Model the fold of this input.
Amino acid sequence: MCAKCVRDRIKRAFLIEEQKIVVKVLKAQAQSQKSK
Done:
C-alpha cells in the first residue's frame, strides 16, 4: 500500500459517507415538507 493509494481509499470512503449523509438529509427534508 503506497501513501497515494491510502489517501485515495480514504477519500473514496469519505465521499461515500458524505453521499449517505446527503441522501439522509434530503429524505428528511422531503418528509418535513410533505407534513406541512
